[in-house]
Design goal:
By secondary structure, the protein is α/β, with parallel strands linked by helices. It has one domain (3-245): P-loop containing nucleotide triphosphate hydrolases (Rossmann fold), CATH 3.40.50. 35% of the residues lie in helices and 24% in strands. The protein contains nine helices and ten strands. It has a six-stranded mixed β-sheet, sandwiched between helices. It has a four-stranded antiparallel β-sheet with strand order 2-1-4-5, covered by helices on one side. A hairpin with a 2-residue loop joins strand 1 and strand 2 (15-25). The chain is globular and about 55 Å long. It binds adenosine-5'-triphosphate (ATP) and magnesium ion. The site of magnesium ion has 3 residues, from helix 1.
Length: 250
Amino acid sequence: MALTASDVTIHFGGVVAVNGMALDVMPGEIVGLIGPNGAGKTTFINCLSGTYRPNTGTALWQGDELIGLSPSALLRKGVARTFQNVASLHDLTVLDIAKLGAGVRRDRRTGGHLLDFFRSDRALEELLMESILAPLELNDVAHKPIQTLSYGRRKAVDLARALAGDPQLLLLDEPVAGLTSHEGMAMAAAVRDVRDRHGCAVIMVEHKMDVVMSTCDRVAVMAAGSKIFEGRPAEVQADPEVRRVYLGEP
Ligand SMILES: Nc1ncnc2c1ncn2[C@@H]1O[C@H](COP(=O)(O)OP(=O)(O)OP(=O)(O)O)[C@@H](O)[C@H]1O
Ligand SMILES: [Mg+2]
């Protein structure tokens, strides 16, 4: 089943940050969300992830309405997000943060808590090291406090936290921003790998067009709160209106 968001609108005083936004995402699909600064991309993700409650709109996921649910209720439904800016000033280790992410994970067949399925903390740690941290190249820093890591690695830890909850719908807000090109390529590969292995539905807000082109199956373009175009990556890149509004061409 898919995510079907429609007519999502939110005002902040006189500012209409998101205006009648609609987007569908199928399982196993990575949909890019691009647009100029202030277009409403993060606000739209915030509306889907329980951070904001939009003034109007619906977002049906596996037949259930997501709008109005708290972030923790959304996690139990398999909806996880990452953040555009990661500020990690505490001294939790990378593995601690992955464990926090795993703590919300439930076996969707039984409703049981993930932690119940492991005899020991050690077994959970081994699972997280192998299945979450190793693919993100975070194994070697698993026991380091997150504040000692580079910005790029902290963004990878934020993705690890989200993935540890075993999400089926993943909302990524600029996962590659602020990363070196090597880190960015590794991050994009990790997102594709997660989709391939778990069949997640992914919405990926991103400015870096090379990442969008190489990672997304479909791309939606927002400007001034609304969707102005949607299509395959090559169609989006070729569209004259998108080139004018977003890519800055005359
Ligand atoms: N809590 C808020 N209060 C007031 N205005 C807000 C709030 N959140 C977002 N906005 C406004 O909504 C608009 C959309 O902002 P948003 O952060 O969603 O843009 P964006 O597309 O994610 O931009 P960027 O590419 O720079 O991250 C902006 O005008 C912003 O100032
Ligand atoms: Mg943003």
